[in-house]
Amino acid sequence: MSINAYEDILLGSFANFTALSNKIGGDVAAQAELVKQAFNAQFSFVRTAAECSAPSNNSDLQNLLKPTSDKIAAIQSYRESHRTSQYFNHLSAISESIPALGWVCVAPTPGPYVKEMNDAGQFYTNRVLKDWKEKDSTHVEWARAWIQTLTELQQYIKQHHTTGLVWAGKNKPATGGSAIPPPPPPGGLPPPPPMMPLGDQVGASVGDDRSALFAQINQGEDITKGLKKVTSDMQTHKNPGLRSGPAPYKAPAGISNGTKAVSAPASVAKPPSFTRDGKKWLIEYQKGNSNLVVENAEMNNVVYMFRCENSTLQIKGKINSVVMDSCKKCSLVFDSLVASAEFVNCQSMQMQVLGKVPTISIDKTDGCQMYLSADSLDVEIVSSKSSEMNVMIPKGSSGDYTEQPIPEQFKTTIKGQSLATTFVESLG
How much is the pTM? Predict the structure, then answer.
């Protein structure tokens, strides 16, 4: 039944998603092909679990998961390598939520995990809905089809794998090799390739350690018999020389047996870039640059700043919007925006508007100081999964500001058949 139910997803909402992706074409269709391969790989894995017993060790389990894991990595890499795509929001919606396929490694709450991943991509699906609802309804249907696919996956898990993946087989243990031949793909789909970071893998046995712990506790008064007496020469208050403790361990320069010490590979630093691609300004990988200036821009232009650190960006004139993505300790100063200023996955950011901005959006950001102007006091600030957000409101023409924090803690009560939510004021 679990196999048939999973196949219903592939032939239903997911098939609709792939059809709409192919209709849109371009990068959306190319990424959707990778998503299809990932779902097919997981279908093969679910079928293995339905026919076999659980693997006896983690190595075998990782081999079974590798096909889906590889496809998830490919989906996310495709998004990173196509940041200039006109469908970047589409690619990001999938990239942020595709880890939902990792539910097979989650216990005891795999269903809520899928919902969490679905919510993680909601920021970008909402942007697709906003940008395309007046232009092309195909994109709106595409976003809803993807959300529906993950919603049905969550319902499937709730029904068939409530507290974790069920290995239903009895006499056919799954191994890292080929425990069973791969199943024929549903609907004539291409066979899945030879799967997902294990993340927080659950299932390690702690029964033996727990039994030993309770055995010691049940000794009663005898539990202290094994303790050694602390003599006066071992007491630090009588021997100040003992207070410094042992010297910290230092790794040897080389290993005595002649083998070379292995060090973790350093992350490759990408070169900074500042380019203009039609209506889009791309500023990436800048570090310690306080002289970033966008000028002579037009009102329909968009500025996108990605993975910059300790840098300052100034935008002269009025443009459509600005997006700060995965930046750290950066400052943004601009005149006016037609649409919005957005902060996504950022840390320790500062923003100052000299003219007017209708909307400020903050998502998964820790630390954001927003200095408003007198003309922007009607701004709407939308925040989610963020902390340490403060709004600086000007005091007349004196140049001083009043600092107001954006609430991070909320209280929800039940009012009949509905909920009432209020923010909790800080007592500090």
Answer: 0.52
